[in-house]
Amino acid sequence: MNKDVFAVKGNIVFTPGPEGFTLHQESYLIVERGVVREICRSLPAEYAACRVEDYGDRLIIPGFVDLHTHASQFNQRGLGLDLQLLEWLNEYTFKEEARFAARDYAAAAYQAFAAEIVRQGTTRVVVFATIHKESSELLFNILARKGIGAYVGKVNMDRNCPDDLREETEQSLRDTEEIIRRWQDHPLVKPVITPRFAPTSTEKLLRGLGALAVRYNLPVQSHLSENQAEVRWVAELFPAQAEYHKVYDSFQLFGQTPTVMAHCIYLTAEAVQHMKMAQVMAVHCPDSNLNLASGIMPVRKMLAAGVPVGLGTDIGAGQSLFMPATIVSAIQLSKLYYVMQPECKPLTLSEAFYMATKGGGRFFGAVGSFEPGYSFDALIVDDRAEHARGRSLLERLQQFIYTGNAADIAERYIAGRKITV
Ligand SMILES: [Zn+2]
């Protein structure tokens, strides 16, 4: 028997689509070279000799995909959240990010971040570092050593930020390209083009970043329409562009290559339509939007328009890296929105779970599901002590999402490899 093949046995739960969960009680999931081959009730004869990890009555669910977060803000979680976005950036975030010029500070913060996302059950992450080339590469290295799947962005900023974070435009592009060359072929940890957001970028910088994205066929991440003062500021800074998203689009940073845009709260119908046409992914970050009083993303409208939507923790504006908490916040916020706008039905648990797994996972390819051909990224959830008393599988999943925590996660797999905390 090929030693690249093994099986896990347990209660398998996942969302092939947003409309509902697929449940396989006491079943085998066959993994071959890190990829899901099939799920079956008994082990087929051809796999009779393969290694079986028997998880008994535990749950086996896809690992979570955090589509937007800031590793460099790990140490500032919970700080300054009486402020709104632009003041919070100046008073807290820029000061914190400036500390990443020091290699030792960055190494300690990024190691703590990587350990924490593994502990919390995140298996794939799209993440911002800072402007600093050396410490950004530390983050690549730390995530790669842990075996976490990631897109890591060295941040680019060349205006409207403190002197110690303002890059010289050409140097910013050169540093970015150097990192691209070193990391573009890594199997798990890859570069993503990362203008912080339009206001901290000159047109020259955005043009250069768009050219790099297209030349190296790299994905793009940034922020879009998070806060009303920000939206007004972008209109002042880029008077030639009719709308915020057009700033990115005019520099090849909006769907010319796979793109994720965090927040997307104040978009016109035309902008939403543009996102659908270009298949730009919107990242809903409910905790962050609540903490900074930014607003509520109209998720139901985005979904109805055909825009792909994922979920992000967005620390440090968000307070927690535990994706089930983000799932719950997204559902709760959608219910509040529904009370104000009854035509927008609340998110269901399966819809929000899908966003946190297969929905966000599409940014990484075949990730976030247990259908054949998907990367075996999985969590073994051990809820037996508290929750298994006569509950159905679906009820057990509901209780894990709403009342569980990292201590309930017994094992983590990424691309078929067991990851240690
Ligand atoms: Zn963010």
TrEMBL record:
Highest taxon of the lineage = Bacteria
Q: What class of enzyme is it?
A: hydrolase
Q: What are the required cofactors?
A: Zn(2+)
Some GO term, biological process aspect, for this entry: which one? guanine catabolic process
What is its pathway? Purine metabolism; guanine degradation; xanthine from guanine: step 1/1
Instruction: Report which reactions are catalysed by this protein.
Output: guanine + H2O + H(+) = xanthine + NH4(+)
Q: What does this protein do?
A: Catalyzes the hydrolytic deamination of guanine, producing xanthine and ammonia.
Report the protein name in the record: Guanine deaminase
Q: Which organism is it from?
A: Lucifera butyrica
